[in-house]
Automatic annotation (TrEMBL):
Residues 46-109 form the R3H domain. This is Sperm-associated antigen 7. Keywords: Nucleus. It comes from the Eukaryota. Residues 119-140 have a biased composition (Basic and acidic residues). Residues 141-152 have a biased composition (Low complexity). InterPro entries: R3H_dom, R3H_dom_sf, R3H_sperm-antigen, SPAG7. It is found in: Nucleus. The gene is SPAG7.
Length: 227
């Protein structure tokens, strides 16, 4: 009987030591503190949501406001505000590069922002409808000018005066007429080879021939044929 009782007593758990009791006490304190913090955070979210619901409601009732910009918020607060706005039937967007600086803007449905307006906010710029309209008109005008130029084709520049008439006192009227006749022939029969355009005569020979032709025309004689 004594042996049986001894075996039972030895199998029972020993009472916790002082160190084990202190560890459990600290764990209970940490759990209590964590629970308290969670409850505080939950209460703060509830209060924040009520405040956002009030601001959104005032915004809807104010007919003079079409958009509203909020102060920078953290990710959780922005999420709550977006949810409130969606329930209210409005439109909301977040802007800002850094997470700490991101803010929310809300818009009434009938005044939803255009792509150009959203692009301005993304670049940190204020939206100016008048400047945007002027920029749009300038862009349309430039596009119309490009289209008109493409339809007209390449621009052909025509000289104000004919070079043959302008320099006839230098090369002689007869030579000018010959040049005009040659130019007309070239236009009629197409392009002339480069070799045919070259004058193999020297300047002195060409000037002598021009003077001779001029003297012959003045005297009424026939021009000799050249080989």
């Amino acid at each position: 009987m004594a042996d049986l009782l001894g075996s039972i007593l030895s199998s029972m758990e020993k009472p916790p030591s002082f160190g084990d009791q202190e560890t459990r006490r600290k764990a209970r304190e940490q759990a209590t503190q964590l629970k308290k913090l969670q409850e505080q955070e939950k209460q703060q979210k509830v209060e924040f949501r009520k405040r956002m619901e009030k601001e959104v409601s005032d915004f809807i009732q104010d007919s003079g406001q079409v958009k509203k910009k909020f102060q920078p918020m953290n990710k959780i607060e922005r999420s709550i505000l977006h949810d409130v706005v969606e329930v209210a039937g409005l439109t909301s967007f977040s802007f800002g590069e850094d997470d700490d600086c991101r803010y929310v803007m809300i818009f009434k449905k009938e005044f939803a922002p255009s792509d150009e307006e959203l692009e301005s906010y993304r670049h940190g710029e204020e939206w100016d409808p008048q400047k945007a309209e002027e920029k749009r008109k300038l862009k349309e005008l430039a596009q119309q000018q490009e289209e008109a130029a493409a339809q007209q084709g390449p621009v052909v520049v025509s000289p104000a005066s004919d070079y043959k008439d302008k320099y006839s006192h230098l090369i002689g009227k007869g030579a000018a007429k010959d040049a005009a006749h040659m130019l007309q022939a070239n236009k009629t029969y197409g392009c002339v080879p480069v070799a045919n355009k070259r004058d193999t005569r020297s300047i002195e020979e060409a000037m002598n021939e021009i003077r001779a032709k001029k003297r012959l025309r003045q005297s009424g004689e026939e021009l000799p044929t050249t080989s």
